[in-house]
């Protein structure tokens, strides 16, 4: 499928640089079949039905962006996938100045050795010393804001709170599952009062989520793998919800991708633990998910392809055109959408 089918023009002033305050005050475009409705995230309890199950990603973002040196060369690294207790794959700026065995000094006593340079363009780093890597990153790392925000302002102390969801308990992500950034205790209480349930899974989002699709055809694009887990209790709740005739609504594309990775042909979701590189494009038959709450995505991105697979490409192009015309805020800190096929 041609990648340019998923292109659209987005004015730069539509890119949100900070989240709405309070979080559930963000706007929400409801796309129900061919019908569009302008709502707020706080209206979500009125847009769902008793018995619906919201599935959140409980991953926690780590300060995975590092700046260092090797000799005279300045090296920037964004960790994106854990390979072991002290080993991470990273996207590296100035990687051509590195070879296996080189050591990078990141400051604050944090040092890593280049283990390998991969054909994907990534570099494998082994962090030296005895302290847990999480402690090293807290000391020397910065929150890895998406490139479209980082190009316009630096990460700051406020992002340490803003770029985490209220469900974030399991460290390992280098990007937030941003649809869940809109949720508050007040909103969760409103959902519970309407009989809308929730559960969690874990997908450690990698920086590959922001990589552009450089191929002209979707068949030629290679997805980066991310680690995820659905435990037996969560799988059982998803299956019981659908067996009762109720809907499973993924909160975020990360939750949806993991549910679909764990779903069999008959729609049963099984416990899952491991890597997924699922790439969902139009023509895909959804097996474990009935709807999606998500933010607005980049042109020609794998995530815009995913929402087009769920709702139809023409329908999503029309919905995004409406959102742009009505002043919705886009991307990680932007407004949300509720997509119900």
Automatic annotation (TrEMBL):
Keyword Transferase attributed: yes
Gene name of this polypeptide: queA
Annotated catalysed reactions: 7-aminomethyl-7-carbaguanosine(34) in tRNA + S-adenosyl-L-methionine = epoxyqueuosine(34) in tRNA + adenine + L-methionine + 2 H(+)
Family assignment from sequence similarity: Belongs to the QueA family.
Pathway(s) per entry: tRNA modification; tRNA-queuosine biosynthesis
Name under which the protein is recorded: S-adenosylmethionine:tRNA ribosyltransferase-isomerase
EC number assigned by the record: 2.4.99.17
InterPro entries per UniProt: QueA, QueA_dom1, QueA_dom2, QueA_sf
Quaternary data: Monomer.
Subcellular location: Cytoplasm
Enzyme class: transferase
UniProt entry keywords in alphabetical sequence: Cytoplasm, Glycosyltransferase, Queuosine biosynthesis, S-adenosyl-L-methionine, Transferase
GO MF annotation terms: S-adenosylmethionine:tRNA ribosyltransferase-isomerase activity
Described purpose of this protein according to its UniProt entry: Transfers and isomerizes the ribose moiety from AdoMet to the 7-aminomethyl group of 7-deazaguanine (preQ1-tRNA) to give epoxyqueuosine (oQ-tRNA).
Any single Pfam family the record assigns to this protein: Queuosine_synth
Domain of life: Bacteria
HAMAP family according to UniProt: QueA
Leader sequence segment: none
């Amino acid at each position: 499928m041609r990648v340019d089918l998923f292109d659209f023009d987005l004015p730069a002033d539509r890119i949100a640089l900070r989240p709405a305050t309070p979080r559930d005050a963000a706007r929400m475009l409801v796309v129900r079949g061919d019908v569009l409705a302008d709502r707020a995230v706080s209206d979500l309890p009125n847009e769902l039905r008793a018995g619906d199950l919201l599935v959140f990603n409980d991953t926690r973002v780590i300060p995975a962006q590092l700046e260092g040196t090797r000799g005279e060369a300045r090296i920037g690294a964004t960790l994106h996938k854990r390979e072991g207790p002290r080993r991470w794959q990273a996207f590296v700026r100035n990687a051509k100045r590195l070879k296996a065995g080189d050591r990078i000094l990141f400051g604050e006593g944090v040092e890593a050795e280049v283990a390998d340079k991969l054909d994907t363009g990534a570099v494998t780093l082994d962090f030296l010393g005895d302290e847990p890597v999480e402690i090293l990153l807290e000391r020397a790392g910065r929150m890895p804001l998406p490139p479209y925000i980082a190009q316009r302002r630096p990460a700051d102390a406020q992002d340490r709170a803003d770029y985490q969801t209220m469900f974030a308990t399991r460290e390992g992500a280098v990007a937030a599952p941003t649809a869940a950034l809109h949720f508050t205790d007040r909103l969760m209480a409103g959902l519970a009062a309407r009989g809308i349930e929730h559960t969690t899974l874990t997908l450690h989002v990698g920086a590959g989520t922001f990589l552009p699709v450089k191929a002209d055809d979707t068949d030629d694009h290679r997805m980066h793998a991310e680690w995820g887990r659905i435990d037996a209790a969560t799988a059982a709740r998803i299956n019981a919800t659908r067996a009762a005739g109720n809907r499973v609504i993924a909160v975020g594309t990360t939750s949806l991708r993991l549910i679909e990775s764990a779903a069999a042909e008959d729609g049963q979701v099984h416990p899952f633990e491991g890597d997924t590189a699922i790439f969902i494009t139009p023509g895909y038959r959804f097996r474990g998910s009935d709807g999606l709450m998500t933010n607005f995505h980049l042109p020609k991105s794998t995530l815009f392809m995913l929402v087009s697979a769920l709702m139809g490409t023409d329908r999503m192009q029309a919905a995004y055109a409406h959102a742009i015309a009505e002043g919705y805020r886009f991307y990680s800190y932007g407004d949300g959408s509720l997509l119900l096929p």
